[in-house]
């Protein structure tokens, strides 16, 4: 890998945080990064293992609170939308300007989704091969092609006015489904709906908590995560709240027959259908112990001569032997997978898991860690 190119990409992403991620396969991964300040701005960074440089970035204004996904369409797979409905998409491949033998994603801006000004989007997901976007006031759009978005629910000025008048601050935070005729959308205050391909209906959820993420699994079970750490499982009109919970939940995803749960500063958890447990292996990335950093005998004698007692000298020795690695994953908040690789991101790092081993893929600031996968 060309470390020079990797570091140049980090120069672009410094001052940004990771908002979203999407994986086509182990050879191509996309990251949407947002300005840390108040100014809107996107730095779309992607890893392409088959190219010489392996990393590239494309920066644009706008695309605030972006969501992204990969749809199963050859050479037109990547899609990113901002909360105002602005769209950034892959339109085939093109020759790299400096390495013509490399074919890279051709990323272009499309026409925006025709949203009402007060209907910001919250999430973008793939269901049955198509992208769906959801947002405020129960707004749902489906992408039916380039510059072609179909409204399936909401985005109606009169309906929004009525909801506002009645004090109903409704809105969808996430969407998932088994097919285009079996879709679930979840949102604020226990707002849960189902779509059968023709019409939407409200579901009586077992909670009025804020639902922030939904996952429809190959087992036929739907999992819904609430921001306070509550997990709900069920389908159709039958739902149960799990007895176990985590301190908070930011995202959930199905990977290798288990539900993975991103809990921010509390780490990563997984649910195997029986119990919720902290994920093993992630903690090994949190710190590295280096015995060679221990104080020398001469240094200990010098501290003792200056009046430091044996207990304090022991504390200094212990602290000097522990290196806290700033490039490890501390607060996982975004999850993505292609079924083979699990991506776990916090604000500044992306870590990949292949089922047996964790590996740092990317760090937003200048660092020697990361750069490529296995």
- How many β strands by DSSP? 30
Structural class: mainly beta
In CATH terms, the superfamily of the domain at 120-245 is: YVTN repeat-like/Quinoprotein amine dehydrogenase
Total helix count?
4
Low-confidence stretches: 286-294, 318-328
Mean pLDDT over the residues: 89
* Principal-axis shape: globular
Describe the fold and architecture.
The protein has 374 residues and is mainly beta. Among the domains are: 120-245, 7 Propeller (Methylamine Dehydrogenase, Chain H), CATH 2.130.10.10; 288-324, no CATH class. 11% of the residues lie in helices and 44% in strands. The chain is built from 4 helices and 30 strands. The protein has helices spanning 3-13, 157-165, 297-305, 310-320, and strands at 16-25, 28-35, 42-48, 55-60, 67-70, 78-81, 87-95, 103-110, 121-127, 130-135, 139-145, 148-153, 172-179, 182-187, 192-195, 200-203, 211-216, 222-226, 231-235, 238-241, 251-255, 258-262, 268-271, 276-278, 287-289, 322-324, 334-337, 342-345, 349-353, 358-363. The strands form 8 sheets. The protein has a 4-stranded antiparallel sheet, with helices on one face. Strands 5-6-7-8 form a 4-stranded antiparallel sheet, with no helix packed on it. A hairpin with a 5-residue loop joins β17 (211-216) and β18. It is globular and about 75 Å long. The N and C termini lie close together (12 Å). Residues 286-294 and 318-328 have low confidence and may be disordered.
């Amino acid at each position: 890998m060309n470390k020079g190119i990797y570091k140049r990409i980090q120069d672009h992403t410094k001052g940004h945080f990771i908002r979203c991620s999407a994986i086509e396969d182990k050879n191509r991964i996309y990251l949407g990064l947002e300005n840390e300040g108040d100014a809107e701005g996107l730095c779309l960074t992607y890893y392409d293992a088959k190219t010489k440089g392996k990393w590239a970035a494309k920066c644009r204004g706008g695309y605030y609170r972006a969501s992204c996904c990969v749809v199963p369409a050859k050479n037109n797979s990547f899609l990113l939308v901002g909360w105002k409905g602005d769209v950034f998409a892959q339109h085939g491949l093109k020759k790299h300007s400096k390495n013509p033998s490399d074919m890279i994603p051709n990323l272009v801006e499309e026409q925006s989704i025709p949203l009402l000004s007060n209907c910001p989007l919250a999430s973008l997901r793939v269901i049955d091969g198509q992208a769906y976007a959801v947002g405020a006031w129960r707004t749902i759009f489906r992408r039916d092609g380039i510059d072609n978005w179909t409204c399936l629910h909401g985005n109606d000025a009169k309906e929004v006015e009525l909801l506002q008048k009645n004090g109903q601050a409704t809105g969808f935070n996430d969407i998932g489904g088994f097919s285009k005729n079996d879709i679930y959308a979840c949102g604020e205050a226990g707002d849960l709906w189902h779509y059968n391909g023709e019409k939407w209906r409200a579901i009586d959820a077992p909670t009025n908590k804020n639902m922030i993420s939904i996952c429809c699994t190959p087992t036929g079970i739907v999992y819904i995560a609430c921001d306070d750490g509550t997990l709900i499982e069920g389908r159709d009109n039958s739902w149960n709240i799990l007895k176990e919970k985590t301190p908070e939940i930011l995202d959930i995803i199905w990977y290798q027959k288990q539900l993975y749960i991103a809990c921010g500063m509390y780490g990563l958890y997984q649910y195997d259908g029986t119990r919720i447990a902290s994920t093993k292996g992630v903690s090994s990335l949190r710190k590295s112990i280096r015995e060679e950093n221990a104080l020398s005998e001469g240094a200990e004698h010098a501290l003792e001569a200056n009046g430091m007692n044996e207990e304090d000298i022991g504390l200094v020795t212990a602290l000097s032997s522990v290196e806290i690695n700033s490039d490890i994953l501390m607060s996982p908040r975004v999850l993505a997978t292609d079924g083979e690789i699990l991506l776990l991101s916090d604000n500044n790092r992306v870590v990949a898991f292949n089922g047996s081993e964790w590996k740092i893929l990317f760090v937003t600031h200048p660092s020697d860690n990361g750069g490529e996968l296995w």
